[in-house]
Predict the structure.
Amino acid sequence: MDTTSGIKTPYYLYDLDLLRQTLEEARQAAGRYDYHIHYAIKANHNPIVTGIINDYGFGVDCVSGNEVMEALHRGFPAEKIVYAGVGKSDDEIRQALENDIFCFNVESLEELQVIDEIASEMKKTARIALRVNPGVQAHTHKYITTGLDENKFGIHPSQMQEALDLCRTSQRLDFRGLHFHIGSQITSLQPFAELCNRVNEIWKEFDISSMGATIVNLGGGLGVNYEDPEGNPVPDFQSFFDVIAENLRIPQHIQVHFELGRSLVAQCGSLITRVMYTKKGVDKEFVITDAGMTELMRPSLYQAKHKIENTSNAGETFLYDVVGPVCESSDVFGKAVELPVTRRGHILAIKSCGAYAESMMLRYNMRARARSYFLDSGEFAKYDFLEKDLRNVV
Ligand code: LLP
């Protein structure tokens, strides 16, 4: 479908039917084990998208005060909001306490002490989970690996006893359990089985049950298929949860939480862009689009490959380097991309842009903010909301 007549490119196009199907499958798969899903709002905070996610009863995983406020503003209940991040500011901690969020995922001993102090000043109780750095290799890009010693995230097991002792003695810290997250875009289930084994060991070693824990949070990380999004529109949530259920050995009454971001939203979004120029290079031809790394920075930041389609032409294919207009040599969507004859004015769809595209949009080069549009019940829809409607509070 050519959805671009009269609409300024580039823009994000979200297929809300696919989003709903994905959420339904995730909900059903998790429901079989009574697992709880928190949506990692960092993946996409588009209000139409988050509004639909809220309809499915998921909680939210936030990594900034503004994300917490945005989640509340969109109607997610405070008791379903968890808040992680290695650098929570005092104001952000205060604000989260004022709003009685469910749980802080605490990333260091120092942060635990600060939360304890602020909660005491405010005469509040802070529910907390300790984020443990489990030392599990996720086999993903190094920039999105989070569970190794070299990563800034989580508390090293060598400091866990001290953290648990502080939780035990503090009047203001309400210890709820443990949090883990080993990385993102993990395409094999093996690292999740390894994570479970580490969780089992850590649970035993530190006798977490004796601390009155009620939850374990295993983070996100389930990957999507960027090579063949049409063939794999919905990730295999069932196999993911099956692996967890097979490998996790902690007491039955402990609630198991997940923070899924990419797997819930990536495949429902495309970045729609117009070809502005084609240009002959030495031994190659460039296709220069009006979208750039400012609308999708994953290829330039992580060498990610997104499938690109020319929706204006078909037939015999040629190889093109598809690049954006931004003044950076890394502003490349793909090298030697196979496309039908591609010319000025053609429309390209860059697939799997529902996660970490719009939410990572930049204003570099003073680029205009790309808008978002929707396919709803197969129909093109403009749902108006203003940028100022997004919360920007702290
Ligand atoms: N929970 C925590 C604590 C996280 O750090 C993350 C992602 C998630 C949950 C969600 O993980 P997911 O289910 O989306 O894999 N911008 C990068 C991804 C960064 C992920 C950071 N943490 C990208 O475009 O690939």
About this structure: Residues 40, 43, 61, 84, 144, 146, 181, 184-185, 219-222, 259-263, 298, 302, 356 surround LLP (CB under 6 Å).
